[in-house]
Design a protein that fits this description.
Blueprint: H1 6-19, H2 25-44, H3 51-61, H4 64-74, H5 102-129
Helix pairs in contact: 1-2, 1-4, 2-3
């Protein structure tokens, strides 16, 4: 591997550093170190290093502004942007609320039971009140 294309890589890394100038210094340094390592690894894998091959590596990495924007999205929020969670409420202090009060559940069960009993009484009443079938009259002269 020759050092001929190092200035091209250095210009690319400088462009990333400029685009990521608003990131914390530690995060920006980590980003540049990761990119440098990736570029060096990709260059080492080349069978024949050429200007086009190095440009292709840098092109695959992407636009320096896009790399900085992605690093910004992954960055933790600044300490001034962290919102205080407020007072901590003990789970014991808050009683769980059910969807329906207990008295309503008991009332619904009683109404259902009364409805079933009434329905059974009506059906039984109809069955018992039905007249008994009368036998057909015998034909005259037959025993």
């Amino acid at each position: 591997m020759t050092q001929t294309y190092d200035p091209m890589v250095e210009r690319y890394l400088a462009a990333v550093a400029g685009a990521a100038a608003d990131l914390p210094a530690e995060q920006r340094a980590g980003l540049l170190a990761d990119l440098s390592e990736h570029i060096a690894s990709a260059r080492a894998d080349l069978t024949h290093e050429s200007e086009d091959a190095v440009r292709a590596i840098l092109h695959r990495l992407g636009d320096p502004a896009s790399i900085a924007a992605e690093a910004r999205r992954d960055a933790p929020p600044p300490a001034s942007a962290v919102v205080s969670p407020g007072p901590v409420v003990s789970p014991v202090a808050v009683a769980p609320r059910s969807a329906m009060p207990t008295w309503a559940i008991v009332l619904l069960a009683l109404v259902g039971l009364v409805a079933v009993v009434c329905f059974a009484a009506v059906v039984l009443g109809f069955l018992l009140a039905a007249p008994a079938p009368t036998p057909a009259p015998a034909a005259p002269g037959l025993p």
